[in-house]
């Protein structure tokens, strides 16, 4: 399918310039997409490692709480948990991945050991410490998931633009340029033929 064009020399050079820009843009977008995919795979690797840590630690943490409940009364457990409440501070920063802004979460947890260690089982102490260490990993999972979603969205968007240039615009421009070149060549041959005929007529007249 050709773009609606006028078969003129000016249009020919105009389309050649557009083609050059489209080819350059296609390369830049393709390079960008390859870079995004590389960064995405790096995030996936980091996500798998952190997620594995979360999947391993969460059951252990829950197991410790269950053991604590078995070893002590529900009331003493509830009181200890209430008294051991700490502070969670979450700071959000931004970083650029190939001009894509993604969030970076920085979390810090401070615990309060104001509950009586005598009245509570050691499993509860271990569970609370484990939970404090576990929270940053959980936040990291959320950070990486969000970053992967944003990069995946940008990769898909860039891929569509690359395909639109590669399979639609660039072939259309090439076809239109070829069409104009053919027409211009036909016009040039026609002009040459007409000039030759005029020359022949002039030569014939000069001889008669």
Give a brief outline of the structure.
This protein has 208 residues and is mainly alpha-helical. It is 76% helix and 11% strand. It is built from three helices and two strands, in the order ααββα.
CA-based gyration radius:
36 Å
Envelope shape: rod-shaped
SSE order, one letter for each helix or strand? HHEEH
Percent of residues in β-strands: 5-15%
Number of domains: 1
Share of helical residues: over 70%
Q: What's the CATH architecture name?
A: Orthogonal Bundle
CATH topology: Helix Hairpins
| Uncertain regions spanning at least 5 consecutive residues | none
What is the terminal separation in angstroms? Answer: 54 Å
What is the CATH class name?
A: Mainly Alpha
Spatial strand order of the main sheet: 1-2
Number of helices: 3
Number of DSSP strand runs: 2
What structural class do you assign from the helix and strand content?
mainly alpha
What about the largest sheet?
2 strands, antiparallel
Mean of residue pLDDT?
86
Report on the structure:
This protein is mainly alpha-helical and 208 residues long. The protein has one domain (9-207): Helix Hairpins (Orthogonal Bundle), CATH 1.10.287. Helices cover 76% and strands 11% of the residues. The protein has helices at 9-71, 74-83, 122-207; strands at residues 87-97, 100-110. Strand 1 and strand 2 form a beta hairpin.
SSE inventory with pairings:
Blueprint: H1 9-71, H2 74-83, E1 87-97, E2 100-110, H3 122-207
Antiparallel strand pairs: 1-2
Helix pairs in contact: 1-3
What tags apply to this protein structure?
mainly alpha, Helix Hairpins, 3 helices
